[in-house]
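Sat 14:20. Reprocessing the chain from the morning session after the first attempt stalled halfway. Input below, unchanged.
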Amino acid sequence: MLNLYHYINDLKNVNEKRVWSMLAEYVDDNNINDICTCSICLMDVAAITLNSIPAHYMCEENMVAAQEKISDTEIFEQLKKAMIVVEKTPHH
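Finished this time. Tokens:
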């Protein structure tokens, strides 16, 4: 029987790393008073952002060479919208 669980960790959404990186950079570079930066709120922002952009799955270990299907500007716009949603309706 084929063990598909063996491959789970090899399949990655390239945009997930990009979203987390942009979120971390934004939080670090800006004086954010409007939004909570607890783990729940940050995960909500990342989840909302990822749900609003197309997934880009790769099954290669080295995803640095992956062609970007969505620009950083587009991701950042969705990230800002997600922050507004979480600011208005936090889950805690």
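The chain is about 50% helix and 5% strand.
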